[in-house]
Amino acid sequence: FYTQLNENEKAVYDSILSQVEELAKDPLDLSGVQVVIPKDSGYSITGKPIFAVFRDHPEIFWVDSSKLVWAEGNPRQDGEGNDIFVLSCMSGESFFYPGFAPENLPQYRADLNAKGAEIKANVPATAVDTVAKLRYLNDWIALHNVYNDAGLSASNFSRCAASGLLSDNDVNTTDDDPVCYGYATAMKVLLDAFGIENAYIEGWAYNTNNRPNGEQHAWNYVKLDDGTGNTQWYALDPTWDDPQLSILPARQVYFLVGSSTETEKNF
């Protein structure tokens, strides 16, 4: 998402990202997160850089970016005439996802980092190329999670990367199980850790089970050599590859899907 921003938007993005740890200190006080817009830039600030930061960085899993806005009364000016904008929360809201607090964040972050390191350490010796590593990651996410049947009514925890990496994978409990956003953000965290160029995508998905209306969904794209020396983007969808029953293998139906790929008839 960063690459789709103009230079002013990139400066705002960089400024937010450099101060993001301020967000971990107090779920209601964002006064430490300030963005300076040079005078005469002609730039009118929007929510686009906020959106981009948290789509590019799902490892910042405790932030509900939908609650972040530019504070009322913005901007004020510094002594040189530059505009200063302060990031804030919607009135009466906390930007923390429910269940996260400054007190428990260190443990959640330690657990998430440890799980990522464990997954990376357990890559099969036979997974020597990028596609094999992708297959391993796709299968790990699909086989270590149970989709939260509450869907859009699921807790916001189910939408963050922590749910896709730290759930108990128990069909009898749903509180910590991910929905598609949790699967896809967790996948992005892993793809970033493996140094594979990728993007997290939110949009609409269609198959014969949900046509004609489709459904809100999240998945991933990865950039790979297409075998001819050129690079192409391919989709992978660990949510729809989840067999739901732990005794079954991951399906790999929605694994490295290209624009001309023909998969099973339900795609």
Describe the 3D structure:
By secondary structure, the chain is an alpha+beta fold. The protein has helices at residues 7-18, 48-56, 105-121, 130-143, 161-166, 180-193, and strands at 34-37, 68-70, 76-77, 83-89, 198-205, 215-225, 231-236, 255-257. The strands form 2 sheets. Strands 1, 2, 3 and 4 form a 4-stranded antiparallel sheet that branches. A 4-stranded antiparallel sheet has the order 5-6-7-8. Strand 6 and strand 7 (231-236) form a beta hairpin. Helix 1 packs across helix 2 and helix 4 runs antiparallel to helix 6. The longest helix is centred in the middle third of the chain and has 17 residues, at 105-121. The two termini are 26 Å apart.
What is the quaternary state of this protein? single chain
How large is the radius of gyration? 20 Å
Estimated structural class = alpha+beta
Helix content: 25-40%
Secondary structure tally, helices: 6
Span of the ends, CA to CA: 26 Å
Strand content: 15-25%
The pLDDT mean sits at 87
Q: What are the SSEs and their pairings?
A:
Blueprint (H helix, E strand, L loop, with lengths): L6 H12 L15 E4 L10 H9 L11 E3 L5 E2 L5 E7 L15 H17 L8 H14 L17 H6 L13 H14 L4 E8 L9 E11 L5 E6 L18 E3 L10
Antiparallel strand pairs: 1-4, 2-4, 3-4, 5-6, 6-7, 7-8
Summarize the structure.
The chain is of the alpha+beta class and 267 residues long.
Output the keywords.
single chain; 267 residues; alpha+beta; four-stranded antiparallel sheet; 8 strands; 27% helix
